[in-house]
Amino acid sequence: MRPSIQFLGLLLFWLHGAQCDIQMTQSPSSLSASLGGKVTITCKASQDINKYIAWYQHKPGKGPRLLIRYTSTLQPGIPSRFSGSGSGRDYSFSISNLEPEDIATYYCLQYDNLLPTEIQIITKTTQGSRSERLGCPQILTLCLNHFAKRFFFSKLQSLWDLLVKRELKKKRKK
């Protein structure tokens, strides 16, 4: 009888530095507004991202929700009071007619140039645990920079969660 293997899940994503690393600067870090009012958030890229920017909403205890992709394309079910615009390096995201449920954290994400992702998978067998490191050649579907423009956006949620955690760790170290 073969030992049973139980998949425990993806343990760790990490991104390696690349010569085309694009930095995004989002502002303001916080803002206040009145119900029915309008707010605008801006994101500036360190280089031209060819309109490949997405905007996410994140509420505590929930996963990120994709609102807009390719600068201004609303996802199905997203109200038209959410909008995005921009080109080159400068982009903005607005919410008009603010409602109480709009209270959240909003993030921009460029996907013109995504770095390769390496995954470490931990599996548990009857003989103990083992770790396997999988690079891009073994898992071509996870080499995001090869097909980012065709990547189905809801699949970016897990990656986004990890990127947010990575940035929070960086901020805590400062």
List the helices and strands and how they pair.
Elements: E1 5-15, E2 24-27, E3 39-45, E4 53-58, E5 65-69, E6 73-74, E7 82-87, E8 90-95, E9 105-110, E10 117-125, E11 128-134, H1 144-147, H2 156-173
Antiparallel strand pairs: 1-10, 2-3, 3-8, 4-5, 4-9, 5-6, 7-8, 10-11
Quick overview of this protein structure:
InterPro entries: Ig-like_dom (IPR007110), Ig-like_dom_sf (IPR036179), Ig-like_fold (IPR013783), Ig_sub (IPR003599), Ig_V-set (IPR013106), IgV_Light_Chain (IPR050150). It holds the Pfam family V-set. With 174 residues, the protein is mainly beta.
Give a verbal description of the structure.
This protein has two helices and eleven strands. With 174 residues, it is mainly β. The strands form three sheets. It has a four-stranded antiparallel β-sheet, with no helix packed on it. The longest helix is centred in the last third of the chain and has 18 residues, at 156-173. It is globular. Residues 1-20 and 129-155 have low confidence and may be disordered. Keywords: Adaptive immunity, Disulfide bond, Immunity, Immunoglobulin, Signal. It comes from Mus spicilegus. Residues 1-20 form the signal peptide.
**Poorly predicted runs:** 1-20, 129-155
Mean pLDDT: 71
Strand order of the largest sheet: 2-3-8-7
Large-scale geometry: globular
- Roughly what percent helix? 10-25%
Rg over C-alpha atoms, rounded to the nearest angstrom:
19 Å
Quick one: biggest sheet? 4 strands, antiparallel
Order of helices and strands: EEEEEEEEEEEHH
Strand content: 35-45%
Number-wise, the strands total 11
